[in-house]
Automatic annotation (TrEMBL):
Pfam families: Methyltransf_11 (PF08241). This is Methyltransferase type 11 domain-containing protein. It comes from the Eukaryota. Residues 84-178 form the Methyltransferase type domain. One of its GO terms (molecular function) is S-adenosylmethionine-dependent methyltransferase activity. It comes from Scylla paramamosain. Gene3D superfamilies: Vaccinia Virus protein VP39 (3.40.50.150). InterPro entries: Methyltransf_11, Methyltransf_Superfamily, SAM-dependent_MTases_sf.
């Protein structure tokens, strides 16, 4: 599948600066052993400039998530379809979904800085200012037609058990879409190596069915990503 390019600048110098700054942010935010509090602090600092990496085509996970939702939910169903964007960040995805006819879009996002940027978009009708998988969760069970997580399952981010929460908040028959960095699925990775086995465990228990596992190029910095689509049973 061709990835949309949202480049707006031809200025090589600015682009190189953005790449360097992004690599520094990534090294800090995805450090092995990083605490959830440090992750949230890092996104607070990153919030006002984060979206540039989507606009400049460096980070493509939310674009892939968007394409997948549009592929799975036909235009005539979008108005009535409820969506929870988990680890919603700056709300880039919700803004695109709104343009495509979705109106019931909720966000779960622990970083206050990210939520501030998201709120300015004016498209999310409810915010859950909390972390998923690290404690009690106020999102009601059996509520959403589509639950999406783009780039939010990682070290210090949503723990592997957060998968169970995605299932809990989705309606029976609803879709759960998860976009992750391919290299993070290696069994040797201390955190994400457990992610795919847990997905399979849930499938073994009959909790959901894997509809698709699609590898795509250029999740970030031209590294492959995986788009998982599940249907809750
Ligand atoms: C790489 S950003 C992705 C943002 C957005 N989904 C996107 O693709 O543009 C990861 C987001 O996950 C959020 N996050 C971190 N830990 C989380 C948790 N336990 N539950 C929910 N979100 C979390 C961060 O605050 C951050 O906004």
């Amino acid at each position: 599948m061709k990835i949309m390019s949202l480049r707006t600048s031809n200025n090589d110098h600015t682009e190189n600066d953005l790449m360097t700054a992004t690599k520094i942010k990534i090294a800090k935010t995805f450090k092995i052993g990083i605490s959830p509090n440090a992750v949230v602090g890092s996104y607070n600092d990153w919030s006002t400039s984060f979206e540039e990496i989507i606009k400049q085509g460096i980070y493509n996970a939310p674009i892939i998530a968007l394409q997948e939702v549009l592929r799975r939910v036909p235009p005539e169903s979008r108005l009535a379809t409820s969506v929870l964007d988990v680890g919603a960040g700056t709300g880039w995805l919700g803004t695109c979904l709104h343009k495509e006819g979705f109106r019931k879009i909720h966000a779960l996002e622990p970083s206050e800085g990210m939520r501030r940027v998201l709120r300015e978009k004016g498209v999310y009708t409810k915010e859950f200012p909390e972390s998923l998988g690290t404690g009690p969760c106020s999102v009601p069970s059996n509520t959403y037609d589509v639950v999406i997580s783009s780039g939010s399952f990682d070290e210090g981010h949503i723990p592997v058990t957060g998968l169970d929460e995605l299932v809990r908040v989705a309606k029976k028959g609803g879709l759960v879409l998860i976009v992750v960095l391919m290299m993070k699925l290696k069994p040797t990775e201390p955190y994400t190596g457990k992610l795919e086995p847990h997905m399979e465990e849930l499938e073994g228990k009959g909790v959901w069915i894997k509809v698709e596992r699609r590898v795509f190029p250029n999740f970030i910095f031209e590294k492959e990503g995986v788009m998982f689509t599940f249907r809750v049973t």
